[in-house]
Amino acid sequence: MCTCFYLANHTYVQTRYIYITAPGLSIVILGLALSLWPRRGRLIYVAALAAGAAVSIAIVVPFLRNKSQNCDAVRQMARYIHDRLPPDAPVGAYSIGQIAFESEHPIIDTGGVTRPGAILYLYSPVGSMARWAESQGAQYYVDAEQPLPGSMPIFMLQMPLIGWTWHISEYSTSIPESIWKLPQQSFPSQR
């Protein structure tokens, strides 16, 4: 049930909660089915086991493979930030955890987790979020497309799809992700 929810709303952030809720929920549902309909309950149990195996092979395995590849790609990006950018230069990024930890750089959170002001721009055009991050002191910005006119790409790599999808072929696709140097003339003083 949890996997179906993630597939329906295309999230991946809460995946860790499957480990807590799915086994217990499955036991409760199957226990109820067995107690209410002993004969049908066994059939439901076998069908659920087969469905779980099919979904795992078709969707969960490629998702986890891509998630692992994504972590490696983010590690490369964080290493680049750590080794090549000035240590005090803030970087605007949506996925802040691994980048902040491994790059040891100040991060402007464009996902709104640590900076709720970003929430206003989550579904706005890219330039709106980039301007907000810049107003918060970002000198660099992580995104697939050019965040602001005059921004220059300084590092690029391919990121595999890491969202849940029923379209299995999408797991073999990737998108470019770049670190962009924001235009010099527009760096605001940090507030």
Describe this structure in words.
With 191 residues, this protein is an alpha/beta fold. It has one domain (2-186). It has 5 helices and 5 strands, in the order H-H-H-E-H-E-H-E-E-E. Strand 1 (91-93), helix 4 (96-103) and strand 2 form a beta-alpha-beta unit. The chain is elongated and about 70 Å long. Residues 187-191 have low confidence and may be disordered.
The helicity comes to 40-55%
Main β-sheet description: 5 strands, mixed
Strand order of the largest sheet: 2-1-3-5-4
pLDDT < 50 stretches: 187-191
The counted number of beta strands is 5
Cα separation of the termini: 45 Å
Oligomer: single chain
Q: What is the 3D form? A: elongated
The tally of helices reads: 5
Our estimate of the beta-strand percent is 5-15%
- Please tell me the total number of domains: 1
Keyword list:
single chain; 191 residues; alpha/beta; 5-stranded mixed sheet; 48% helix; elongated
